[in-house]
Write a structure and sequence with these properties.
It is a single chain. This protein has 367 residues and is an alpha/beta fold. The chain has a single domain (2-159, 257-361), classed as FAD/NAD(P)-binding domain, CATH 3.50.50.60. It is 36% helix and 26% strand. The protein has helices at 13-24, 49-57, 95-108, 176-182, 214-219, 224-230, 236-244, 287-305, 310-335, 338-350, 353-361, and strands at residues 2-9, 29-33, 46-47, 69-77, 80-92, 112-115, 119-123, 128-131, 136-144, 165-172, 185-191, 194-200, 206-213, 252-254, 270-272. Bound molecules: flavin-adenine dinucleotide (FAD). Residues 10-15, 32-35, 41-46, 51, 118-119, 145-149, 151, 167, 197, 209, 211, 254, 257, 274-275, 282, 285-289, 291 line the site of flavin-adenine dinucleotide (FAD).
Length: 367
């Protein structure tokens, strides 16, 4: 069996950030990522103020990568709209660009990045990854950063029930109407059983991302564009935006998102990061910040105390993520419940400070 001093499973924001920092701190991390090339994933691409501050610590400036600034939030339920300034400067950046930039920086610091290699199973007891090429690789410490995807051998049991959430994402081609509607703004469209986020990203296109109960997609015939059409009565402005695009790329999907999960207990030599540490409801747009924050804290703990820091890092991070994950879960529930969402938007219209408060309390922070 091959050995590496520190192994990182997955090269999303969490994995790339921890690789960068471990290498910068003098360690020799090896990162395993299954995709061969940079690609887009199911993510809204919203970077809140905390994500931007955390990226700055890694030497990454979204504005320098062309990310359009976002200053306002617009919430829409049916024909009701509430809009206000955000309490922080935000930005829209595609995950293709963000992930590729972070992985390049990690390689630049001396981390070994092995792409095109899938992890088939994680053995937490032996601290070893079984790979798709039938080989295995063991390590002194494993940083588990496979994100939304369940890693075999390291489950995240949640009470997602018999109608779990799934994520959908598509890039809408630029159009004057979309550019006008979305300039400087993140839109959140609420409907029964789900919501959609829409923003402009650095390539001029718009990123449309949905989190939706599986049953809603099934009821619409199983195809995302049929779901958008079926939502025309409930979310007419979403259907309008979709229709305003001059074209669209392929849909990406991810099933069974374990919203609300937090890894409360750790073990020696194992550090769960990002969505493997805590899964915040995506309408908060703070999953990337959680990924970066967990990576920064895990790298610091490991470089300071070694593999034995696993349990203390994990319980401290679970405690830190408790409030944002809890508040976002509650807002998700309200947003997906029409008889709550409508009056909530009406309230937000009269008290837009509540939107700012909700945006602020769903941040992990960057302190
Ligand atoms: C619908 C939706 C919208 C969202 N919108 C936003 C948003 O606007 N802003 C925000 O901050 N957050 C958002 N999030 C959350 C955000 O996408 C995640 O929290 C974030 O991507 C977590 O980063 P990560 O590095 O932990 O995992 P990921 O980004 O999922 O990265 C995991 C990496 O591991 C690799 N990998 C997975 N399995 C294997 C394997 N078996 N072998 C090898 N490699 C593997 C993957 O290819 C991937 O590169 C959204 C989530 C959803 C579902």
């Amino acid at each position: 069996m091959r050995r590496a001093p520190e192994l990182i499973a997955g090269g999303g924001p969490a994995g790339a950030a921890v690789a960068l920092l471990l290498a910068r701190g003098g360690a020799m991390p090896v990162l395993i990522e299954r995709s061969r090339e940079p690609h887009d994933v199911v993510c809204g691409g919203f970077l809140g103020g905390d994500a931007i501050a955390l990226l700055a610590r890694l030497g990454v400036d979204p504005a320098a990568l062309g990310a359009p600034a976002i200053r306002r939030a617009r919430l829409i339920a049916g024909r009701r709209i509430a809009e206000t300034d955000l309490p922080f400067a935000a930005a829209g950046l595609s995950r293709r660009t963000l992930d590729a930039t972070l992985l390049d920086r990690a390689a630049g610091e001396g981390a070994t990045i092995e792409r095109g290699l899938a992890i088939r199973r994680v053995d937490l007891d032996q601290r070893c990854l079984h790979l798709g090429d039938e080989t295995a690789i063991g390590a002194n410490a494993i940083f588990l950063a496979t994100g939304k995807h369940e890693a075999r051998g390291a489950p995240r049991p949640t009470r997602s029930g018999d109608d779990p959430a799934l994520g959908l994402r598509i890039r809408l081609e630029p159009s004057a109407a979309l550019a006008r509607a979305l300039a400087g703004t993140i839109e959140l469209h609420l409907f029964r059983g789900g919501y959609a986020g829409l923003l402009l990203q650095e390539d001029g296109g718009a990123n449309l991302c949905l989190s939706v109960a599986q049953s809603r997609l099934q009821a619409a015939g199983g195809r995302p564009e049929q779901l958008i059409a079926a939502l025309a009565h409930e979310a007419p402005m979403l259907a309008d935006r979709f229709g305003a695009a001059t074209g669209a790329g392929p849909w990406s999907t991810v099933a069974r998102i374990p919203y609300g999960w937090r890894a409360r207990r750790g073990r020696h030599g194992i550090f769960r990061l990002g969505d493997q540490a805590a899964v915040i409801a995506s309408l908060a747009g703070d999953g990337i910040a959680i990924a970066l924050d967990s990576a920064i804290r895990a790298a610091h703990a490991f470089l300071h105390d070694g593999a034995q820091a696993g349990p203390s890092f994990q319980s401290a991070f679970a405690a830190r993520a408790r409030r944002p994950v809890g508040v976002a879960g509650m807002l998700k529930h309200w947003g997906e419940t029409p008889w709550v969402a409508g009056p909530m938007i009406a309230l937000f219209r009269h008290a837009p400070g509540l939107i700012r408060h909700a945006a602020a309390t769903t941040r992990i922070g960057a302190d």
